[in-house]
Amino acid sequence: MPADYSAYKALKFNRPEPGILEIILSNPGKLNALDEDGHRELAEVWRDVDKDDETSVVLLRGEGGKFSAGGDLKMVERMANDWAAKLKAWKEANDIVYNVINCTKPIVSAIEGPAVGAGLAAAMVADISVAGRTARIIDGHTRLGVAAGDHSAIVWPLLCGMAKAKYYLLLCEQVLGEEAERIGLVSVVADDDKVIDTAMEVCRKLSKGAPVAIRFTKHALNNWLRTAGPTFDASLALEFIGFSGPEVREGYQALMEKREPKFDPDCPF
How many domains does one find in the chain? Predict the structure, then answer.
């Protein structure tokens, strides 16, 4: 039966063509940053998609030519100071990755502008990713003062190799779309004004393909990611340990004050 998406607040939905469902990250004025509703919904929506008989393929994109600026800073502050908020966010972060991996329908991400945080997690674990030439892919965890745990450990080494993964994840260096395609981090690069059109064309091809064969192929290939599950679980646990430490407080304050963080160079281990 068709799924009912009417209860979602932070995500918008559109059916541009039969069989294709657009899931749109929407937080106008904040570069589609995910607040607590958005974080929860991005974790849950893939279960509804999986049961949706009207959907053969999903296009995930941001509203207004921007993908997502990551997590809302108010949510980050609560995670650093509230045990229940930390546990809730940890479970949702886990579900975002595994629910995208286990969703039987193929998922295409269209990455425009900045792509950070939980939104980036869904985009990078998607089956096919289309990025604009000047799209800015940034895993900013270590700059915030926590381990890179959202998704990167499960998929970046597989996509672009360990050397590149360590370079970008340890240093929080941004990857422009053109470079991301060159190193294999994304599937396809497109001119900035053609990202959605290119992603839609991929969706059309998938929607007209053999659905069982495509879904079986996705399931089999994603066993590479399932095999890396323990690595992801460890990275996510280490990230959330960091939300109880001093480095995240400095990282958060630096973001609020729009300055470079000044971390204590002494390390207890």
Answer: 1
